[in-house]
Specification:
alpha/beta; globular; 10 helices; ten-stranded mixed β-sheet; two-stranded antiparallel ribbon; 16 strands
Length: 342
């Protein structure tokens, strides 16, 4: 099996992708009203910088989301009917013109995609690891002016329209199935055990400008909502965490990124994609074997590829593919995958 991973430097709102060419969108946009993104938004629209300078937070907030809405319009054009889009976004807290308040980014994104004809599905909250010693901001022990600290973000899940991509029983879904116990964990609406970055970004100011989300987020989401050979699109590509996860998961990917510096970082990250893919596969297999030990005698089906039982007949065809080689061809990375055997 081979997968292809394209990188485009430019604004995703003006992509060259064909209509209905994408199976899954997994992305994390810059969060409006988080200060680290002020310069980016101001470069996209000078009126945003003007609003921030005069401390008009509400206007800046709306204008920033107008920039994101232009990308959501493109997502609606390129995502196949029935395709899934998952947007990782956090709300912002900020003092503007002397007033501390929350800017609800998740609700703006939710409404923006609903306006584009997307059908919202149940979302997921994931709790970010925090080094904060206190769980509040404000006046300490004196009511009423302390505020809870934001330690979660949203994974907003949408289907493009009201149809589904696959008919029941479609064969190509079975190799890409997940284990029963993974289903129970992954499809919970609260994720509290998401690990941090598997590969660290060590590039000075690029680290500050990327705000990369943990590898496990896109890897889980890609495993949950796509099958082998699907194409995953990230319109806010950053350092390519979504593309790396797609490569490890045996899917194709396309990314758009405004800053060309990040493409060099991705080239370094894919150098160890083969080892990373094997580590991920071994971890999933080891976790399942532990599940088998804890439920000895209650699993009625045998895996057709591996030496363990599984809970349901839908898991019998599970086949993992490891990355064996990655080559670069201009702005594309080509990965070769082989069935993983022990």
């Amino acid at each position: 099996m081979e997968t292809e991973h394209e990188i485009h430097v430019g604004n995703a709102s003006e992509s060259s992708l064909p209509d209905d060419s994408i199976d899954l969108v997994v992305t994390s946009p810059p969060y409006p009203m988080i200060e680290m993104w002020d310069d980016l938004f101001s470069r996209l629209n000078s009126k945003i910088g003007d609003a921030l300078e005069r401390e008009d937070g509400n206007t800046a907030f709306e204008l920033m989301h107008d920039e994101l809405d232009a990308v959501w319009a493109e997502v609606a054009r390129v995502l196949k009917p029935g395709g899934i889009a998952v947007i990782n976004v956090g709300d912002a807290t900020r003092k503007v013109d002397g007033t501390f308040q929350l800017f609800p980014n998740h609700s703006q994104v939710l409404q923006g995609l609903r306006n584009r004809g997307f059908c919202p599905l149940p979302d997921i909250l994931w709790r970010k690891p925090s080094n904060r010693l206190t769980k509040f901001m404000g006046s300490g022990m004196l009511p009423p002016n302390a505020y809870t600290a934001l330690e979660h973000e949203y994974l907003l899940v949408f289907r493009n329209g009201d149809s589904r991509r696959f008919e029941p029983g479609a064969d190509r879904r079975y190799e890409a199935a997940y284990f029963w116990e993974e289903r129970n964990e992954w499809f919970s609406d609260l994720w509290t055990a998401v690990r941090g970055e598997i590969q660290e970004l060590d590039h000075g100011d690029l680290r500050e400008r990327s705000a990369a989300f943990p590898f496990e987020l896109p890897y889980r989401l890609i495993s949950m909502f796509s099958v082998y050979g699907d194409t995953v699109f990230d319109p806010f590509w950053g350092t390519g965490t979504t593309s790396l996860a797609a490569m490890v998961a045996g899917r194709n990917s396309v990314g758009y990124e405004l800053e060309s510096d990040f493409t060099g970082v991705f080239e370094e990250r894919v150098e160890t994609a083969d080892d990373l893919s094997r580590d991920i596969i071994r971890a999933r297999l080891d976790d399942h074997r532990e599940f088998v030990r804890e439920h000895d005698g209650s699993l009625a089906y045998d895996s057709n590829q591996y030496d363990f039982p599984v809970k349901t007949s839908q898991e019998q065809e599970i086949q993992f593919y490891e990355v064996t080689d990655v080559t670069r061809d201009g702005t594309r990375f080509l990965a070769t995958h082989e069935p993983y055997s022990e």
